Amino acid sequence: MTLPSHHPELRAELEQLATEAFRPELSGIDRLPTLEIARLMNGEDATVPAAVAERLPEIAAAIDAVAARMARGGRLVYAGAGTAGRLGVLDASECPPTFNTAPGQVTGVIAGGPEAMVSPVEGAEDSRDLARADLDALRLTRDDTVVGVSASGRTPYAVGAVEHARARGALTIGLSCNAGSALAAAADHGIEVVTGPELVTGSTRLKAGTAQKLVLNMISTITMIRLGKTYGNLMVDVRASNDKLRARSRRIVALATGAGDEEIERALAAADGEVKHAILILLAGVDGPAAARLLEDSGGHLRAALAAAEG
């Protein structure tokens, strides 16, 4: 088989990345007892939160910028390939049931499209053109945010997505796990969580993937808190789409108000099942339409609506 002409250069590039480094002290792990391998892996994983902690100021600054744009109607878009792309799609897919986000308000694009969620799509991650096409299909605006995610920080799809989004005026964030990455340099906000060499050389679905998951959790969750999607630490915008979530909705109303079951059922009926509205009905003593008006006037922030009702 003839190797691509760029193969030697790419190999040299990868060898410079901390996430690709070979650890000779682990070269015999396949001979160890399973429990010992598990201990080694657990010890490696325990280092990830500290690596994330070092980047908290950059993460917080990025979140504030995202929230400001989403408050104006912007969207949050994740873009990546392989594990990084799948993590972005996963985080986006969990926002509607958790925070009742509108369709497309938080979304993920992955190199190779939906098929790449379960199977590798050969060559997709190497295409900047594919990233541009995927983002153009979303018709980006200046209020949108694109988060490029790549463990190496060099994946052409992720870097291309950030470069294209920034050229279109969107806010851009580059999340990688190597210092001095092209992805962070291309973005308005660069976040480099340096997790170091993996237990299995180059398998960045391990520590790097864990770090990316933690940061994406922060970006989406804290943004939604800033947008008033929670009341304290309660998911008051939860979408009750199944029995478990309907039970959770009633528990949330109870925790927020201290009301009894019958009162909660009446309030939820008056609020057409909307948890935030039901809480306002119970705490402010208003009816369903008044609760809806107060929340609309308060931009969906329950605390502000309660203050307005008391005023």
From TrEMBL:
EC code(s) of this entry: 4.2.1.126
Domain SIS: 66-229
Positions of the catalytic residues: 94 (proton donor), 125
Catalyses which reaction(s): N-acetyl-D-muramate 6-phosphate + H2O = N-acetyl-D-glucosamine 6-phosphate + (R)-lactate
Membrane spanning stretches: none
EC top class, as a word: lyase
Listed InterPro entries: Etherase_MurQ, Glucokinase_regulatory_CS, MURQ/GCKR, SIS_dom, SIS_dom_sf
The family this protein is said to belong to: Belongs to the GCKR-like family. MurNAc-6-P etherase subfamily.
Note: A lyase-type mechanism (elimination/hydration) is suggested for the cleavage of the lactyl ether bond of MurNAc 6-phosphate, with the formation of an alpha,beta-unsaturated aldehyde intermediate with (E)-stereochemistry, followed by the syn addition of water to give product.
Function: Specifically catalyzes the cleavage of the D-lactyl ether substituent of MurNAc 6-phosphate, producing GlcNAc 6-phosphate and D-lactate.
Protein name: N-acetylmuramic acid 6-phosphate etherase
